[in-house]
Design a protein that fits this description.
heterodimer; A: 432 residues; alpha/beta; Rossmann fold; Ubiquitin-like (UB roll); de novo design (two linked rop proteins); 5-stranded mixed β-sheet; 4-stranded parallel β-sheet; 11 strands; 13% strand; B: alpha/beta; Alpha-Beta Plaits; 23 strands; elongated
Chain lengths: 432, 481
């Protein structure tokens, strides 16, 4: 495993996800510590001091998000766990939901205590079956053991939890789309201001955090912010669950300590590129992050600052590895088909632009490309930058611009010769 | 009162205003599709972008709080580029079939296209095809290709009419506005307002569908007589300079459509569907022939006969119309008020199935000027016989809606009415009178707000104006006209 582990600290067995096993690993002792020895402010202070960053994609400091919620403001607060893991290439939250559901629940209870939350929610994507059954069973176990409901562990802290299954929309993974969906409305993202931490779910201050982000809370409270900061890099402490897929020999979920050399991770931990091929590029954190070429990857370490300096980001940790000879035009086609399909249709630039880009790339792949198409794709991407309610338009634009910037020659070749410059495949021969 | 700066000029905004509201209130125009002053903020059309001063990005003005010291540019190069791009996006899948669209001439998209874009579509792709002439109920048809998904209509049914009858189905560029499956849009008595608030020609009124080009029509300010709310409306009819000389000249004197005339004191920007259908009230068959006991006479003869009856009567009673204008009611009181014992009569009662009253506009009293009339005259007793004394020998009935069977036996009847009805022939004297669209005047609504209506069409010579008629009836009987 690449570096130190904080979440994947136990061997997965047939019963490792159950309450009994979790307790045997010391589970729910941190909750007791938080409830009986710490004030809510202490918990928030500890999380802020740890420098924990959001793991959902934007890497927003968790402490800053929590600090916006004013304790004792006379309003109910809400906590939502975003388990609508929909970013293509990402399947890390699934690991936690399947194998460490009680870690998530304990962390959520601690977070709920810190934020004075009476009702917590888990918004889980509709396609998740085993993860849903595991987390639902874990909630039942936790209720039976008295971790939820009135008077948790004999204190006057009370918290209830609701698991809400999504219906399979990418945009509902966006925090404000997620809360409108929980409210029973069409899952349209909301305009900011007001921020969700001011007026979120049911018009109350709400904190929406990713599964992995929340799952780190228990560990931080258990061993303290200082211990947490020793893991990873000084500016980017902790670990990241990386779900790696694509042309890689050993795909799967790995817990990578921030600051771990990327090259070592790809070639040692994950066994190198499929079929012994050379690396062409990686998409480091879900398809909405910018692509990094093999040469760009070489000196990088896996952390926020390093990847951002290279023009990309950690994103959601969904790493897609792309081997040489893969046709980037067809790759972009697949990506744009996804964005077109998932645009919620609310804002004009995204609603029309995604379809427009998809039709352009389809035309190029169909051999009907025009020289001005590349500029048009650039233009549509730029016009989606920062002009929509949620970040989906921006994300599609970044991804498109990233690929066009680095592989423009493939697009020009495809338009001119009406066929791919390479084999035209997305699959590596013999391994498909 | 936060002070904000629009294009460098200081503007005093109200404390809860957005930049868009402050700009519009102070003479800076910012275009908008999805924003509407009476609806919640959707922020989806993205045309109202402004540039924060000194920044290299744009934000939507409709959701930007006007906080102290906010500085925005509404007409920078960046803003113009974004508006132009947004219009390119909007017209990407819009059919641009203005030539056959009822909204052409008053379409926001047309206006903005010429103001902010002015270029052909730069797209080479085929347009997304969608459904056309979708029935959203009996009164509205929807063209999904023209729809720009601003969601104004959806928000209207949620926030204003509260019927929740519309929603959006599917997603992305194949999103569709659709009516709820229980057909509640038909039961929404305010449904036609969505036609007005639709910024493009996606929602169309079925009665008006392909009936007229709006530039041949002109609006005349009027007041809806459908209930005691007295909503101010525009009656749209053919411009005199575009009179039809052939084909169907009746169109020259017909109401083509009715739209709300925004009036914060009475109806805001809305009216109900009954107000849309005023043509059904005003274009009923008209009585234009003065009569004595059913025999046609000319107007001066009918007036002279009525005057004679009034002169001879010992105990005359008048039933005054609650559809009379304040001017007519005053004329009656001044000319004949001492001569008659007068009562205000409800001309219209709620029709079967009609919504009686609600919290938005509709009032139970289905007459426009009961308040104005009641300021001058007593209410007709519920039991009509109570209005008539034993000795009542003449009843002047002004306006429709009174059952002649309830008249006292033996009393003479002078009847002033505008519509072709059987009672006209039973009256001893029948004088046809003008209707609201043929004269100007004022109504007082149930809140005491006085609204004016203007004349749309000329009145025929054989029809009397009640206001002058009352003065003529008050002349001494021996003076012949």
């Amino acid at each position: 495993m690449p570096g130190q582990q904080l979440i994947m600290t136990f061997p997965v067995t047939a019963t490792s996800h159950t309450l009994a096993d979790y307790r045997a690993r010391g589970g729910y002792q941190t909750l007791e510590k938080a409830l009986k020895q710490m004030t809510p402010q202490d918990v928030t202070k500890e999380v802020t001091a740890s420098g924990l960053l959001g793991h959902g994609g934007a890497a927003f400091p968790v402490g800053r998000k929590w600090a916006v919620v004013k304790l004792n403001d006379g309003q109910p607060h809400h906590l939502c766990c975003n388990a609508d893991e929909g970013e293509p290439g990402t399947f890390k939250d699934r690991w936690i939901l399947e194998h460490a559901p009680h870690l998530l629940l304990e962390s959520m209870l601690i977070a709920a205590y810190a934020l004075q939350v009476r009702n917590a929610f888990v918004y889980i994507r509709g396609e998740f079956d085993l993860p849903y059954r595991r987390i639902a069973a874990a909630v039942e176990e936790a209720y039976a053991a008295g971790y939820f409901g009135e008077a948790v562990l004999g204190t006057n802290f009370a918290c209830d939890i609701v698991i809400y299954r999504g219906a399979g929309s990418y945009v509902c993974g966006e925090a404000s789309g997620l809360i409108t969906s929980i409210e029973g409305k069409r899952g349209y993202p909301r305009n900011r201001p007001p921020r969700l931490t001011v007026k979120g779910l049911y018009q109350r201050p709400s904190v929406i955090n990713n599964v992995e982000t929340l799952s780190n809370v228990a560990g931080i409270i258990a061993s303290g912010a200082e211990a947490f900061k020793k893991v990873g890099t000084p500016k980017c402490p902790g670990t990241q669950l990386v779900s790696i897929s694509g042309h890689i020999n050993r795909p799967g979920v790995y817990e990578v300590e921030y600051g771990y050399p990327l090259q070592k991770f790809l070639f040692d931990d994950c066994g190198g590129i499929l079929g012994g091929k050379k690396l062409k590029c990686i998409i480091p954190g879900g398809i909405s992050t910018k692509v990094l070429t093999a040469a760009e990857c070489e000196p990088l370490t896996y952390d926020k600052q390093s990847l951002e300096a290279a023009g990309s980001s950690v994103g959601s940790g969904g790493m897609i590895v792309i081997a040489e000879d893969t046709c980037m035009v067809r790759l972009l086609q697949v990506m744009l088909r996804f964005y077109h399909h998932e645009s919620c249709g609310q804002c004009t630039p995204c609603r029309e632009g995604m379809g427009w880009m998809h039709r352009i790339i389809d035309r190029i792949v169909g051999g009907q490309g025009r020289p001005e198409d590349i500029e048009r794709l650039y233009e549509i991407s730029r016009l989606n930058d920062g002009t929509t309610i949620c970040g989906m338009g921006d994300a599609a634009g970044y991804a498109t611009i990233g690929i066009l910037n680095k592989y423009r020659d493939e697009f020009e070749y495809f338009i001119e010769h009406k066929r791919s410059k390479l084999s035209g495949n997305l699959e590596v021969a013999g391994n498909a | 009162m936060p002070e904000i700066f629009i294009n460098g000029q200081p503007v005093a905004a109200k404390s809860d205003e957005t930049v868009l509201q402050a700009a519009l209130a102070n003479g800076f125009y910012i275009p908008y599709f999805c924003w509407h002053p009476s609806l919640s903020i959707a922020g989806n059309c993205r045309i109202c972008v402004v540039q924060p001063e000194g920044k290299n990005w744009v934000e939507i003005a409709c959701n930007m709080p006007a906080t102290e010291g906010t500085r925005v540019l509404t007409d920078s190069d960046l803003v113009r580029a974004h508006r132009k791009a947004t219009l390119q996006f909007i017209t990407l899948n819009h059919p641009v079939d203005c030539g056959i669209c009822d909204k052409a001439g008053e379409c926001t998209l047309q206006d903005y296209h010429f103001e902010y874009n002015g270029e052909r579509s730069i797209s080479h792709e085929p347009k997304v095809q969608s459904t056309k002439f979708v029935e959203l109920g009996k009164r509205i048809v929807l063209d999904n290709e023209r729809c720009i998904l601003c969601s104004r209509c959806v928000r209207f049914t949620r926030e204003i009419s509260k019927s929740n009858a519309l929603g959006i189905k599917e997603r992305g560029d194949t999103s569709l506005v659709r009516a709820a499956e229980d057909a509640s849009f038909d039961d929404d008595p305010y449904s036609d307002n969505v036609v007005d608030i639709c910024p493009v020609g996606a929602l169309l009124s079925r009665p008006f569908l392909h009936k007229a080009r709006v530039w041949y029509l002109k609006p005349t300010p009027s007041v809806c007589p459908g209930c005691a709310r007295g909503c101010t409306v525009n009656l749209w009819h053919r411009k005199p300079e575009w009179r039809l000389a052939a084909l169907d000249p009746q169109q020259n004197v017909s109401i083509a459509r009715v739209t709300p005339l925004e009036n914060p004191a009475v109806n805001g920007p809305w009216i109900c569907n009954k107000g849309r259908d005023l043509a059904q009230i005003f274009e009923r068959p008209r009585a234009r022939q003065p009569m004595q006991k059913g025999k046609p006479v000319d107007l001066p003869a009918a007036i002279a006969a009525a005057r004679r009856l009034i002169g001879e009567a010992k105990h005359p009673v008048a039933l005054v119309s609650s559809w009379g204008s304040n001017e007519e009611l005053a004329a009656f009181r001044n000319a004949l008020g001492n001569r008659f014992t007068a009562f205000v009569k409800p001309d219209h009662v709620p029709a079967p199935g009609e919504r009686l009253q609600d919290d938005l506009l509709i009032r139970a009293d289905k007459n426009p000027n009961t308040t104005g009339a009641r300021e001058l005259f007593a209410q007709l007793p519920a039991e009509a016989a109570d209005a008539f004394a034993e000795a009542t020998d003449l009843v002047l009935v002004w306006g429709e809606g009174f059952n002649f069977a309830r008249l006292p036996r033996g009393a003479k009847v002078v009847f002033l009415n505008a519509w072709l009805q059987p009672e006209n022939g039973y009256a001893d004297v029948f004088v046809p009178v003008s209707i609201q669209t043929e004269r100007a005047g004022h109504y007082t609504n149930f809140q005491g707000v006085v609204s004016a209506f203007e004349r749309c069409f000329p009145k025929q010579a054989s029809v009397a104006d009640a206001e002058t008629l009352f003065a003529a009836l008050a002349l001494p009987a021996e003076v012949r006209a």
